[in-house]
Amino acid sequence: MGDNPKKIVPRMKDYEDDGPWIWVAFVPGCRLILDFVIGPRKQYVADKLVELVNKHLSDKIPVFVTDGLNFYREALLKQFGVLKEFPRTGKRGRPKKPKIVPSDDLRYAQVVKTRKNGVLEKVDKKIIFGKDIEQSEISTTLLERQNLTFRQDNNRVSRKTIGFSKAKEWLENQMKLYCTHFNFCRWHGGLRYKDERGLSAKIHLQEKQELLSQNGI
Amino acid sequence: MGERIPSNLLNILQPSLLRVWQLLFLDILNESIKIDGQFVFDWCYILEIIYRTIMGKRGPKTQFANVACPNKECELYGLTGQDNVAGNGTYVSRGKKTRRYICHHCGKAFCDHTGTFYHDLRKDERTIDLALKMSMKGMSIEAIADVLEIESASVKRWLARAAEQCDKVNDNLMKNVEVPKIEMDELWVIIQKK
Questions:
Q1: Which of B119, B121, B122, B143 is nearest to B131 (CA)?
Q2: What confidence tens digit (pLDDT) does each residue in A31-63 have?
Q3: Which candidate in B80, B188, B192 is best for mutational testing of the A interface (most A CBs within 10 A)?
Q4: pLDDT under 70 in chain B at which residues?
Q5: A217 within some domain
């Protein structure tokens, strides 16, 4: 038994990528979870999340801030991009193919973290689309804190637990109930001193019973 | 001893009297009570107008002016005060008396619970609420069933129904949201693999 070589524990980076992820869109100003999708780290899931977010939004496009994952860039381009066609030059050769370019009011920035041996080395704030984004605005801190709240409140999404879900369907149902309660029924200490909630739909302390009895009319 | 006249009687009558004056004024304009070019004040006519304004139309009155028809195919769907909804008896549901209604426009009968989360559920509301609260706090379905002494299939059914209702609420309340900034991120979770 003692002769066996020491088992190498895989780095978190390696084993995390295999499993499913919850993709969350969050409004930090009023602690509103706009939508979430459960799926692997693939392009189609990012597309679905951005599409769902767009359904909730009005004509005005907000600033999008994400981590360094480039799937969001493609997804935002697909949703808010404009197809640009290039005129024929009249010269010889193959004509230029039409290209999707970001629309003028699309603003998107990334927070890119560089790690060395698991230790944070550098934080870069990159503006990908648009202008007039303040450096202080480029941050995902509040969403990272929100992720911790998910993990603390909910045994199904905790780390190092054996209370995980057995089927995706039930995790999704439970998360929907949790998020709706979080958005419309739960009191948030962080919003106590703010007069401007930023969103009229955010009804605090609304009775859950009232919420569930809504006809959806 | 005569009955005391309530002090707020005038306040109650005032809107009605105003309406009477409006009606009279309209009638004068329409020359309906003008005979041979002269105004004739027919007191019976005036009293009838007063009676109708205060009591409304003749015939049975509908009590449920604030109830709307929940049938989406009905022309009066979601509209209140259309005089189409009438009482259709009561029945006992989960130990409580529940009112049934009928829409005279489409002929469909419904009750207070129709279209809500609690429609057609037999468990009392308190137990269902407790089950959902426990689920929100992260308890497993089996654990909830164990604590509340119910079947786990019931908890599953309620949870699925609650999720469906949450979708409706989200679609309804989160429309045309105007916000300055949206953050997006991923959260790693475990789901059992087979």
A1: B143
A2: 889 999 999 988 999 999 999 999 999 888 999
A3: B188
A4: 1-42, 54-62
A5: yes
Decide if B125 touches A, using CB distance below 8 A.
yes
Number of folded domains that form chain A: 1
Contacting residues of B for A24, CB less than 8 Å apart: 184-187
Inside any domain, residue A175:
yes
Give the three-class secondary structure for B132. Answer: helix
- Give yes or no for residue A109 having a pLDDT over 70: yes
Q: Which of A144, A176, A183, A204 to mutate to probe the B interface, most B CBs <10 Å? A: A176
* 3-class DSSP assignment, residue A91: coil
- Shortest CB distance from A19 goes to which of B116, B163, B189? B189
pLDDT average, residue stretch A134-152: 92
- Strand segments (E) across A4-62: 21-27, 32-39
Q: Residue A212: which domain range?
A: 165-217
In the DSSP assignment, the letter for residue A28 is G
